Amino acid sequence: MHSAAVLSPALRNSDRPAIPFFPYPQVFLREQEDLVRIFCDVGRRGAFILQHDLTRFEQNLAHFTGARHAVGVANATDGLIIALKAALEAPGRDPLRRDAEIIFCAHTMVATAAAIHFAGCRPVPVECGADHLIDPASVEAAITPRTVALVPTQLNGRTANMEALEQLARRHHLIIVEDAAQALGSRFQGQCAGTFGSAGAISFFPAKLLGCLGDGGAVLSNDRQVAARCFALHDHGRDAAGEVTGWGLNSRLDNLQAAILDFRLARYQAVIERRRALARAYEHRLANVAAVILPPAPDAGDSHFDVYQNYEIEAERRDALRAHLEASGVGTLLPWGGKAVHQFAALGLKAHLPRTESLMAKAVLLPLHAWLTEDEVDRIATAIRGFYGSRP
Question: pTM here?
Answer without folding.
Answer: 0.94
